[in-house]
Amino acid sequence: MSMLSLERVTKKYRVGAFGGRELTAVRDATFTVKPGEVVSLIGESGSGKTTIGRMVLRLASVSGGNIMFDGTDVSRLKGRRLAGYYKRVQGVFQDPFSTYNPIFKADRVLHTIRPTFFPDVNAAEWRKRIDTALESVRLDPRQVLDKYPHQLSGGQLQRMLIARALLLDIKLLVADEIISMLDASTRIDVLNLLADLKARGLGILFITHDLSLGHYISDRAVILRSGTVVEMGSTDKVFGNPRHPYTRTLLSSVPQMHRKWTRADIARTIDGRCAIHDGGDCASDSELVAVDDDHLVGCAAQK
Ligand SMILES: Nc1ncnc2c1ncn2[C@@H]1O[C@H](COP(=O)(O)OP(=O)(O)OP(=O)(O)O)[C@@H](O)[C@H]1O
């Protein structure tokens, strides 16, 4: 059974002077994440990836559709049930430095969750759990505890945030561009760590603009273009036999690892052939069509 399930999720923001205009950041997004599955959410800058992650984490409201976690509508959770949700679902974001307050020691992020989530666990037991969580993200407690953020590397801070998520015994991690800012060797370490966590049954929504990273780690890929899912399915199929011209454009630019996608890249995809209406009229269908088992593609005219 799917653990996380998005059903036609839409997000509209009010923008412009006095909020007079509406911007649809995400339109009808539908996909799932199962336990032990890594799903990559891939798209150019501004395609709505972070907005989806924020809605899953309840940091942004949903304008339409439903986000279900283990059969419960996430947007209806309140009070203790919402706290229970955050015990199972946590996010880690791009810039680890911005998550830490420079005036406090970094391990404060590990200590402060005890009173909120585990008031019955005593200090000695909590300290043991911290050591175990740090060791499972391959950090040596003696090297990282009692240090200020500026005394630790970006990779160590990022791992400490993952350890924080593990202390909560989460089932789903929303990882939003967590390795883009790390150097190449640390990036591989953190990817390997995510692979370990997945092997232990953690579901991961891995948000990235970088297809090569998405390919490396994920079981399934969801390709977002301007807020709309244009292609999704098993990573091997989406990457091995991309059917949407936008996915093809993204893939053809893979060697430029850290480049962010621009409007011009999107415009170029419109010249490509549509996998659904090959040679015929593109009708801007909003439904994705199955082209293979676990491989869905949208009409190339979709905006
Ligand atoms: N709070 C907000 N108010 C208004 N518009 C917003 C807000 N947050 C995001 N947007 C807009 O929604 C769209 C999607 O943004 P989002 O940050 O989700 O994209 P992204 O794919 O994560 O991009 P990036 O890779 O650059 O982080 C963009 O057009 C963005 O400008």
UniProtKB/TrEMBL annotation:
Gene3D superfamilies: P-loop containing nucleotide triphosphate hydrolases (3.40.50.300). Coiled coil: none annotated. Pfam families: ABC_tran, oligo_HPY. PROSITE patterns: ABC_TRANSPORTER_1, ABC_TRANSPORTER_2. Keywords: ATP-binding, Nucleotide-binding, Transport. GO terms for molecular function: ATP binding. This is Oligopeptide ABC transporter ATP-binding protein. It comes from Phytohabitans aurantiacus.
